[in-house]
Structure formats: C-alpha cells, structure tokens
C-alpha cells in the first residue's frame, strides 16, 4: 500500500470522532486537520470525472486572450450550479469574473486563480505525438491553460463540502487569469480593487512536476505597449515627397531600440511585432503600429527601459515628421511568493506525491520529447523537485501578471504535473498531452494539494498570521507594489477578436461533447494508449 493510501486509511476513519462537534477557523487541531484533509482528498478523487470533463472541454474551446467567451461562460455555469455567486465583466473585461461562496460568519477569504487563454497557431490533436493540428492555423492550448480552472473548481467544491459538513467559516473566491499570454488582465483587476478583502491567493499553473516556491522568482516583470505612429499618405511613386511614412517611423524605432539593446543590462528581455505596417506598397503608410514588451527584474528597471522606449519612439517620430502616441496593453510585476504559505503547500505536496505514470504514458512522453527535438528524453517526472527557495541571483526569463497579485497579498503558485518536461513552450507541442490521461492525472494531483492548502489557511489562524507577517515585514518591508497602469488605461479587449471570429465557426465543430463521448480523445478518434509513436514521413516534426 502506498504512503498516500496508508495516510488516507489511517485518518479518514477517525474523522467522525475528531470533528463530531464541528470545527471553526480558531480551533482545528493538527489531528483534526489531518483527518479533514483526508476526507477532502476523497472529495477531490470523487470528482476526477468532473476534472477530466472540464479540462477537455476548455481544451476544445481554444480561445485567445480577451476572447475566452465560451470558456468563461462554461466555468461560471459550473460554479453557479454549485452555489457560487458570479460577478461578471470585472474591470471592463467581458471574460473576467469573480466567483464567491461564503459559509458562516467571518473566517478567512481565500482566492484560487488560474489562467484561461491559449496560444496563436497552436491547434493540435491531443494524444498525437507529432504536429497534427485540429484546424491548421487555428489557436490552441499550447501552454496548457485549459487545465488550471478545472483543478481549482474541483478543489473548491471539495473544500466547500468540508466547510458545510464541519461548519468551517470562511469564503472561497475563484477568478480567471484573462489574457495572460498578453499579460493584460490581472493588473487591471488589481487596480480596480477586484481582490479587496481577500486574505491570500493560491495560484495554479501547469507544469511537469508538483512544486511550489517562495521569495523572488526567476523571470521578469514587464510593460506591454503599442506605439501608434501617424503620418500622411501619398502616391508612393507619383508624389512620395508629399507623404510622411508611419512605417518609416516604426522601422526607425526598431532600429534605435536594437542599437540600444547592447547598452542595457543582460537581464532585460525585449521583443516587438509590427501589427500594422500599412496597406499596400503604392500608398505611403499613414498609420503604423509596433507592439513592444519591455521586461526586467525590478520595478525601477522595468520603468527605466520603458522610458527609454518612449524616448526612442519620439525620436523616430521627429525624424520622420510623424506623430506618435502609445497605449498600454498590460503590465506584470516581478513575482514574489510567500514563504509560510509555500512551506505549508510543500508539506501537502509531499503527502500527495506525483501521479503513478503507466508504461504507456512514459513511452508516449518520451516519443513527444524525441519528435520535437528535446535535449532531455527521460519522459515524465517521477521524483518531486522539492520546495524551491529563492536563488541568490534569480535568472531572467518570462513574466506572469500573477506578480501584481503577489504584491498586494500573500500569494503562492502551485505548479502541477499535467504536461511533458522540456518542451518548447508557447508551441503546439505543449498541447499534445493537455487532453490526455497525463493531464487528467496531473490535474487531480494538483487539486488535492490546493484543497489541502486551502484548508490549512481556513483552519489555522497561525499560518495565515505568519503569511501576512512575512508579506508585511519581509516582502514589502523596503519594496512596495509599484502600479504601472494609470487610472485611464483601459483593457485592450478588442485584441484577438478578428482571429477568433475567423476560426471560431470551424472550431465549434470540434467542441467536446461529454454527453456523447467519454473523453475528448474518443471524440477525435484518437486511440489511447498510443501505438504509433513515430511520425509518418509526411508529418511535420
């Protein structure tokens, strides 16, 4: 018998005795909490089918940032059916919502969050270990954001049952990370007070191991900005001297920024795309837009690089006799996670452990790694990585706007093993496992940890007090949150609307129907376990 099963058997049977008189947030002893967690783990396991259905259904929607219409409608419907009150359209974002459920008087308010959106051009049939899009060119869950809300909903429902049964006072709040791939949602919600009254946040994000961390995280924060240049059109051959090319200004800005990169700190990351370069060659472009991400590791460094970008944009406009303005798309603070919360979560991680992967699942994972050219081909993780302490010098890298929430309250991120290690990221390959038994097992494992950690926060006043003390006396002692949005910045909710309007009619034909099919793999006709692991000659590797 596994350690987890032994623990469950030893504690679940005693639950009726230790909680016979009910429990409140002020008096749950260690023995009572252990038994309560055992019962709640059973509650998660009993909802494994719900986790699978939600995971697969959200995968099938495949919606880009700000356009998570079907996804948000589906999740909120499930929550409403289970007694949650929904506030929609938070911060002027149609797909943003806050779901709340309260039991008893007082008690802590614990929030669970996870992202919703997917990746452009990442459509992929799950369970096929090579590139095989459902719809060529369509978006898809090439990071795995389809899984986190399924995890959180199952965890919340299991905890909700325990709160009612054992009279545990408190409030559960669920919320979505809208447009995280644009890092363009959470900072607006923070600015507008969406998390007022929340005591702590547990955030979940897909990974390949079951782990958490504390302190300053590796990676960066950022400002995402669109620079709009305005010139004068003219006939490109007949009277070019009468034109003022906005595209010339964009190109000059890009050249100026690329020259300046050499003289910025190596930790910075910056990238751009030209989203509007004009209409056709024989018309001098009167309008052009370039979209920048300025990433750095501290609030001051992010703002400094953004100011340099503004200066270069103005210089490019001056050189071309055009005008420039800019619009903030989104911001992300550098992430900083809470130590007492992370340590509590780690204790639960060690109880739950990694899923038991089958030989077929391991063979499939190794095949995917081989087919996409991964440097590591060991398959799925079989050993916990352990609690990650802050590095002396955190590495640079990507951003996540959970950073903004981490600077307004105690926050942790729990990564869960629903994907295959060492894939490219933001890529169709990262969608391959995300509606297979690998993801289903990983979601259930993560849901157990989230449910157990939520119970810790609801029933252990000392833990919550220590978490808040760490937030106040360590994290924010010398560095406070620095908002980068102004009061007038608005979410760019029009982004991706045209793309989804183009692909959604065809994508609807492939939405998962759990009334007819046990899994999305079954609906797509993908056999599991997979027998053919090498791509056919005509398949793109």
Report on the structure:
It holds the Pfam family M20_dimer. InterPro entries: Amidohydrolase (IPR017439), Bact_exopeptidase_dim_dom (IPR036264), Peptidase_M20/M20A_hydrolases (IPR052030), Peptidase_M20_dimer (IPR011650). Keywords: Hydrolase, Signal. One of its GO terms (cellular component) is cytoplasm. With 541 residues, this protein is α/β, with parallel strands linked by helices. The chain is 38% helix and 15% strand. It folds into two domains: 317 residues, Zn peptidases (Aminopeptidase), CATH 3.40.630; 112 residues, Alpha-Beta Plaits, CATH 3.30.70.360. It is built from 16 helices and twelve strands. The strands form three sheets. It has a six-stranded mixed β-sheet with strand order 1-2-4-3-5-12. Helix 4 runs antiparallel to helix 6, helix 4 crosses helix 13 and helix 6 crosses helix 13.
């Amino acid at each position: 018998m596994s350690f987890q099963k032994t623990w469950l058997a030893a504690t679940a049977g005693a639950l009726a005795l230790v909680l016979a008189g009910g429990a409140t947030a002020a008096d749950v002893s260690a023995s009572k909490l252990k038994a309560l967690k055992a019962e709640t783990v059973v509650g998660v396991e009993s909802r494994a089918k719900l986790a699978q259905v939600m995971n697969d259904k959200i995968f099938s929607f495949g919606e880009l940032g700000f356009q998570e219409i079907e996804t948000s409608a589906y999740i909120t419907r499930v929550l409403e059916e289970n007694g949650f009150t929904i506030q929609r359209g938070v911060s002027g974002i149609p797909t943003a919502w806050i779901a709340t459920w309260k039991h008893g008087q007082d008690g802590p308010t614990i929030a669970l969050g996870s992202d919703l959106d997917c990746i452009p051009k990442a459509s992929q049939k799950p369970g096929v270990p090579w590139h095989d899009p459902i719809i060529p060119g369509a978006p898809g869950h090439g990071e795995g954001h389809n899984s986190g809300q399924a995890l959180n909903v199952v965890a919340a429902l299991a905890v909700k049952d325990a709160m009612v049964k054992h009279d545990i006072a408190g409030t559960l709040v669920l919320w979505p990370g809208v447009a995280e791939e644009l890092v363009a949602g959470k900072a607006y919600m923070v600015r507008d007070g969406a998390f007022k009254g929340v005591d702590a946040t547990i955030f979940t994000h897909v990974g390949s191991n079951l782990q958490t961390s504390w302190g300053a995280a590796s990676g960066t924060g950022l400002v995402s900005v669109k620079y709009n240049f305005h010139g004068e059109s003219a006939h490109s051959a007949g009277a070019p001297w009468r034109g003022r090319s906005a595209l010339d200004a964009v190109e000059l800005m890009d050249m100026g920024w690329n020259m300046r990169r050499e003289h910025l700190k190596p930790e910075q990351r910056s990238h751009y795309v030209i989203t509007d370069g004009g209409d056709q060659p024989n018309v001098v472009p009167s309008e052009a837009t370039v979209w920048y991400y300025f990433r750095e590791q501290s609030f001051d460094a992010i703002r400094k690089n953004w100011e340099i970008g503004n200066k270069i944009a103005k210089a490019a406009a001056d050189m071309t006799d055009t005008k420039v303005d800019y619009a903030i798309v989104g911001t992300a603070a550098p992430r900083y996670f809470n130590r007492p919360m992370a340590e509590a979560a780690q204790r639960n991680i060690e109880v739950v452990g990694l899923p038991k992967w089958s030989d077929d699942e391991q063979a499939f994972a190794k095949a995917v790694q081989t087919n996409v050219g991964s440097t590591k081909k060991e398959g799925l993780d079989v050993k916990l990585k352990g609690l990650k302490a802050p590095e002396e010098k955190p590495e640079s890298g990507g951003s996540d706007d959970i950073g903004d929430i981490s600077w307004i309250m105690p926050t942790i991120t729990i990564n869960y093993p629903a994907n295959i290690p060492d894939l490219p990221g933001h890529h169709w390959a990262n969608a391959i496992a995300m509606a297979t038994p690998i993801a289903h097992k990983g979601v259930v494992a993560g849901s157990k940890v989230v449910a157990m950690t939520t119970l810790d926060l609801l029933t252990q006043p000392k833990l919550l007090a220590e978490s808040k003390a760490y937030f106040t006396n360590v994290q924010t002692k010398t560095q406070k949150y620095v908002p980068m949005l102004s009061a007038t910045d608005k979410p760019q909710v029009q982004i991706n609307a045209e793309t989804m309007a183009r692909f959604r009619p065809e994508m609807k034909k492939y939405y998962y129907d759990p009334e007819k099919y046990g899994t999305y793999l079954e609906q797509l006709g993908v056999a599991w376990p997979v027998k053919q692991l090498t791509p056919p000659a005509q398949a793109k590797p």
